[in-house]
Design brief:
Layout: E1 4-9, E2 16-18, H1 39-50, H2 55-71, H3 75-94, H4 98-101, H5 104-108, E3 127-130, E4 144-148, E5 154-159, E6 170-175, E7 184-189, H6 194-209, H7 229-238, H8 255-260, E8 264-270
Antiparallel strand pairs: 1-2, 1-8, 3-4, 3-7, 4-5, 5-6, 7-8
Protein name: Septation ring formation regulator EzrA
Signal peptide: 1-29
Keywords: Signal
């Protein structure tokens, strides 16, 4: 039986317990990465080109997505990413620097994890990433990202209308049901504070209020006129002084780059 993992803090101990720690499996993922000959992929490629992407960039995006998919294609690989963050967080606690590196740990420790009633995950400003192959907000890009709004029952997400659960194109508010999903990471931003978490959520909400369109030029992460999913989360935090991209000098930011960034830590994982 697969178990989900979340940091659980004991009020009687300074140690950190991790539900499901070390119980990862090794079964290969059954999903198959979409072919460039897939009809929905072909349709989206034409849209990408119309928004300025070149054939070379599209090929590069697909290759990057394949590599990222492979990095979490087994439960063991996906769990290893979470375990690495666990060790770092545990060390921050031992070194008494947890408030400096991850202040939200103490601010929100009693609220973290999944809300049993609503199945929401995280609190304001947290970044959520799905690595389910079929969770993407586009046909080629791998995975999906969201940011939790100031009211944790809602997330702010950017979707292509063809894949949006509410059939909306661009940035909108969604019900935060991420706690009920599998293949999900929850991310904290390092060396941040409550004000920045609030402002990151507010920035994302503003884009939803303005109904910013979906950005199909994945190599134009710097625009603020339109957004794809991970670009929205990245920009919300970039404006707070935190670059949560992994490869910061390139022009694309993927959901898994948010997970692998040196400026985030994984506080939650559900296989």
């Amino acid at each position: 039986m697969k178990k989900h993992n979340v940091i659980v803090t004991s009020l009687l101990s300074a140690s950190v317990l991790f539900t499901g720690f070390g119980l990862e499996g090794n079964a290969q993922a059954k999903d198959v990465f979409p072919s460039m000959n897939d009809e929905r992929v072909k349709e989206e490629i034409e849209e990408m080109k119309a928004e300025g992407m070149t054939s070379e960039q599209i090929k590069e995006l697909q290759e990057m997505s394949k590599k990222e998919y492979d990095s979490v294609s087994t439960e063991a690989k996906a769990e290893a990413i979470f375990e690495e963050s666990q060790k770092d967080i545990e060390q921050y606690i031992k070194d008494d620097v947890i408030d400096e590196y991850l202040p939200k740990y103490n601010e929100e420790k009693e609220k973290m994890g999944v809300n049993a009633k609503s199945k929401s995950l995280g609190t304001k400003g947290d970044v959520l990433v799905s690595y389910d192959l079929n969770s993407g907000s586009s046909a080629i890009g791998f995975g999906h990202a969201a940011i939790v709004s100031r009211k944790k029952a809602k997330t702010v997400e950017a979707w292509h209308k063809n894949w949006s659960p509410i059939k909306q194109h661009g940035v909108r508010r969604y019900n935060n049901n991420w706690g009920s999903r599998k293949k999900v990471y929850g991310l904290w931003v390092k060396k941040s504070n409550n004000t920045k978490y609030v402002n990151a959520a507010k920035y994302a909400e503003k884009q939803a209020d303005q109904k910013k369109p979906y950005n199909l030029n994945f190599f134009d992460k710097k625009t603020t006129k339109k957004f794809y999913c991970s670009q929205l989360a990245w920009r919300a935090w970039k404006n707070q002084g935190h670059d949560i991209d992994n490869i910061k000098i390139d022009s694309v930011v993927s959901p898994m780059e948010l997970v692998n960034s040196n400026n985030t830590k994984v506080f939650y994982h559900k296989k």
